[in-house]
Specification:
Distance between the termini: 40 Å
Order of helices and strands: HHHHHHHHHHH
Radius of gyration: 27 Å
Number of strands: 0
Largest sheet: none
Structural class: mainly alpha
Number of domains: 1
Shape: elongated
Length: 268
């Protein structure tokens, strides 16, 4: 199970159910209380619909897909290898020699950048266009994460609303103490669900989207550095050194060791 969100959701449910069991709270109240689910889930959805335009909300299914499957990005080590190869070709045959490699690039951002430098655009222009593309991507990602962040803020408050509604209903059973106790317990299920969904679902999902966005943005910034370095005619070793800073120390060490092994195999 590579995606940690499934582990997190399972642990959250275990903590909730097992915690209620240890406290002696009737677990059946979790499933035998449809009113609480309607108040929390439908109420949260209503708040989000009021807060955001439909153009943003139409992206929610895609955002859920990103959360549960994670986008497949090019490995940063692979990016360094590609730029090292392209730098070697450029210094030997010239920048136009890379035109034959453009169709092999799958990443749209990288392909667009490569076409711009091959077409002979000025470096400042290429940098501005690519950075503006990154800025637009960040803003789009920020808007998506904010939907879940706001849902996480609304849900606990709606849990309090659910508890108030439940207590109002409980006050109608003052003559029957057993019914009153049951109604009060059921009233606080809405508060429990509001806090649980807010802090175990919506806020963490928002944070997950932010982390995925940062990974993608960092990768694109790495590509920008590589593209501008190739356009400037920087040496292969210099490009490697420039792009290695985007790796963690552990990844950097593993990459250099792999490069040394390949070099030794070629000379053997």
């Amino acid at each position: 199970m590579k995606n940690s969100i499934f582990i997190g959701l399972a642990l959250g449910l275990v903590a909730l159910v097992f915690g209620m069991y240890l406290k002696g709270a009737p677990i059946i109240n979790l499933v035998n209380n449809p009113a609480a689910y309607i108040i929390i889930l439908v109420g949260t959805a209503a708040s989000v619909f009021v807060a955001f335009p439909m153009s943003d909300l139409a992206k929610v299914p895609k955002l859920f897909k990103l959360i549960f499957s994670e986008p497949k990005l090019i490995a940063r080590e692979r990016v360094i290898e590609m730029f090292t190869e392209w730098a070697t070709i450029t210094r030997r045959e010239g920048l136009l020699a890379l035109e034959a490699r453009v169709d092999e690039i799958e990443d749209p951002f990288l392909k667009n950048g490569m076409r711009m430098i091959i077409d002979g655009n000025e470096q400042d222009f290429v940098r501005d266009v690519l950075l503006e593309d990154i800025s637009t991507t960040e803003e789009r990602h920020r808007a998506g994460a904010q939907i879940f962040s706001q849902a996480g803020m609304y849900a606990p408050t709606l849990g309090v609303l659910g508890a108030v509604i439940g207590l109002i209903a409980a006050l109608g059973n003052l003559a029957d103490m057993n019914a009153l106790a049951h109604a009060i317990a059921a009233a606080f299920i809405a508060t429990l669900l509001g806090i649980f969904t807010g802090y175990v679902l919506w806020h963490p999902m928002s944070n997950r989207l932010k982390r995925l966005s940062k990974r993608e943005v960092d990768l694109k910034l790495m590509m920008v550095e590589g593209l501008l370095s190739i356009q400037s005619g920087v040496s292969t070793i210099a490009i490697q050194q420039k792009l290695l800073v985007f790796l963690t120390p552990t990844e950097r060490l593993a990459f250099t060791e792999k490069e040394d092994e390949q070099r030794e195999q070629k000379t053997a």
